[in-house]
Specification:
Radius of gyration: 18 Å
CATH topology of the largest domain: Fructose-1,6-Bisphosphatase, Chain A, domain 1
Structural class: alpha+beta
Mean pLDDT: 91
Number of helices: 9
Helix content: 25-40%
Largest sheet: 7 strands, mixed
Strand order of the largest sheet: 3-4-5-6-7-8-9
CATH superfamily of the largest domain: Fructose-1,6-Bisphosphatase, subunit A, domain 1
CATH architecture of the largest domain: 2-Layer Sandwich
CATH class of the largest domain: Alpha Beta
Shape: globular
Length: 265
């Protein structure tokens, strides 16, 4: 895709998330939040569904031939090479608890490769965007990871330490003994903190395509590394790690006992 068309699509995505921010803030001011448990045990609110429906309608109007994949409704299948990936509220538990780290995420894939994304944190008044080879920005200011190469001096965050302990108990123990600063309440906002240069390693587990794809352009255009736990950078699914640099990922791989695949970078 040429750069002018890429910028056109990015402008559309940024404009759409400006509108969803307004809708979200209006709902929160009116205290109109209703919540339910889904069949998979995760929370969903009326806001999740309303925002996704709003985004889908605007995408379909602007780009009727494009595919759409989102969390709350069935995929819109398309043979077009472009497909929008959206998560109306990432961090629904944060939203319910009144923690301001929830986000709205929108990404565009071309031939299954993410080429742009926009992530908005309306309660934090921050919008972060990135497109292929054009850098990463927050409210217009460039974002860049910090070059932390020492694992023992790194700041580590994960959305759910209990899930880490359940899925990878030996890894959880290694992290506890070797990385002294460990925080939570992450979700997608944790990856924004990495792009801002505030933290160094972010790990999450059992993620879906709408959780992962919007993170990839943001992290990579800010200069960071993002892959699965084994270092595979293509078709990342389920478990995801992001580090401020590849050297730090290599240090983490040694800690976790994983091979460090040098041919993926």
């Amino acid at each position: 895709m040429n750069n002018s068309l890429l910028e056109k699509h990015l402008f559309f995505a940024r404009s759409l998330l400006q509108k969803t921010d307004q809708l979200i803030n209006k709902q929160l001011i009116q205290k109109a939040l209703r919540m339910n448990l889904k069949e998979d045990g995760s929370w969903v609110t009326n806001l999740d569904k309303e925002i996704e429906s709003y985004m889908r309608n605007h995408i379909h109007t602007a780009y009727p031939s494009h595919g759409i994949i989102g969390e709350e409704y069935a995929n819109k299948e398309s043979e077009h090479e472009l497909c929008w990936i959206l998560d109306p509220i990432d961090g629904t538990e944060s939203l319910i608890a009144g923690i301001p780290f929830f986000t709205t995420m929108l990404a565009l894939q071309e031939k299954n490769q993410p080429i742009l994304s926009v992530i908005s944190a309306p309660a934090m008044k921050q919008t972060v965007w990135a497109s292929y080879n054009n850098g990463c920005y927050c409210n217009g200011s460039p974002c860049r990871v910090r070059r932390q190469r020492n694992l023992r001096s790194s700041w580590f965050i994960s959305s759910d330490p209990g899930r880490l302990q359940r899925l990878y108990p030996m890894l959880a123990e290694s992290i506890a003994h070797n990385i002294p600063i460990y925080r939570t309440w992450a979700d997608a906002y944790g990856y924004l903190l990495l792009a801002f240069g505030k933290v160094d390693i972010v790990i999450d587990f059992e993620m879906q395509i709408w959780d992962i794809i919007p993170l990839i352009p943001i992290v990579r255009e800010a200069g960071g590394h993002i892959s699965d736990l084994y270092g595979n950078t293509q078709n990342i699914r389920n478990d995801c790690i992001s580090c401020s640099c590849i050297k730090l990922f290599g240090e983490f791989s040694k800690l976790a006992g994983y091979p460090h695949p040098s041919n993926n970078h």
